[in-house]
Amino acid sequence: MVLLFGVYLSGTQEAAAQNKKESWFRDLFRVKAPELEYIAPDTLKSSYSIDSLQYFGGGGEEEIEAELLINDLEFDSKEMKKELSIVSEDTTSFEADLESLVEVAEELLISKDWVTIHEYYNIWDSKNINPYEVDPLKFTDSVSLQLFDTLSAPWSPPLDETKVTSHFGSRHYRWHYGTDIKLNTGDSVRTVFDGIVRIKKYDPSGYGYYVLVRHKNGLETLYGHLSKQMVEVGDEVKAGEVIGLGGSTGRSSGPHLHFEFRYQGNPVNPEDIYDFDSNELLSDTLVVTAETFSYIKEVRKVHYYKVRRGDTLSGISKRHGVPISKICSLNGIRKNSTLRVGQRLRVH
Ligand SMILES: [Zn+2]
User: What is the pTM of this model?
Assistant: First the structure.
């Protein structure tokens, strides 16, 4: 909060009156874009409300001035190149009590474009890869997304070379939601389109160190198993900018990039978008239809396994990538139940 006001209030009162608010904000934007400020969490107000900023005001000249500026920010939004928006890390609704005040994560102040450009982007969550809860099987539209435009939408290869080592699709009873690309640890990994970093996280049993970037075309891309992340949540990145270094962290058997494209939180086969042989986009546009997500039917198919001699629950659990507790609940058995040879166990 101090930071936020610090930026707004760096001039004298007179200057503020004369300067008109535009210049204030031009100053603000001259700083590395997008301006990212941490403010104390406000659990009382919804996203991008002016009140949520005022809530922290304890009175006094500085704060009143800050309030004015924030109001001006709203009123003058049309003239401004960029409008700032407060995005909450917590997307659930919460009670306005002291406990939740402590629990709620920090909020970010980012360009409003990033939350208004696509309807589903009004959810900002820096912890969950898919917070949108859109059932891909209910997708009946045909949406054309622009992947490349000479003037306004650049793209970049994620790596200098893109040799595929594992495809999107079924993998030993588990679905592989991305394309794996060979690399050497330390290789530069680049964001494919312009974007803003939504997630920078460590997932020891899965993606390892990974980064998820939100793009203006409606897609999000994920880069997994990095040895180093080189961006922060809220950073605006340009196509081709290095966001991390390749590695083999998380569930990985050797250095590679696990690369995903997602639309409305649901994975899209990268090979519908990218030609890894030539290391180029397949087309300037991507048409998303029900067919794009038809693989989900395969993912959701119920799978049974026929118990063989010597099988144990933990062995079956490992082989199918399903926790023992899940197998137990799917089949109404206990962890110490005796398995019979020939018994059919539901594993998915
Ligand atoms: Zn992978």
Answer: 0.65
Interhelix angle 313-320/324-331, nearest 10 degrees: 110
- Under 8 Å between Cβ of 136 and 296: yes
Contact (CB, 8 A) for 214 and 114 = yes
Q: Are 114 and 36 in contact (CB under 8 A)?
A: no
Q: What DSSP letter does each residue of 92-160 carry, written as one string?
A: S----SHHHHHHSPPEEEEETHHHHSSGGGG---SS-S--S---GGG----EEEE--BTTTB-B--SSS
**Distance from the alpha carbon of residue 138 to the mean position of ligand 1, in angstroms:** 26
Please give the distance, rounded to the nearest whole angstrom, from the Cα atom of residue 282 to the centre of ligand 1: 20
Kindly give the distance from the C-alpha atom of residue 260 to the centroid of ligand 1, in angstroms, as a whole number: 8
Per-residue tokens: 179: 């394309």
171 CA distance to ligand 1 middle (Å): 10
Measured CA to CA, the distance from residue 293 to residue 288 in angstroms comes to 9
Rounded to the nearest angstrom, the distance between the alpha carbon of 125 and the centre of ligand 1 is: 23
pLDDT by residue (tens digit) across 273-330?
Answer: 999 999 999 999 999 999 999 999 888 887 788 899 989 999 888 888 788 998 998 8
In the chain the domains, ranked by start, together with CATH numbers, are: 2-116 (no CATH), 143-298 (2.70.70.10), 304-346 (3.10.350.10)
Using the mean position of ligand 1's atoms as its centre, give its distance from the Cα of residue 216 in Å.
Answer: 24
Give the distance (Å) from ligand 1 centre to CA of residue 334. Answer: 32
Q: How far is the CA of 283 from the centre of ligand 1 (A)?
A: 23
The structure tokens listed for 233 are: 């949540």
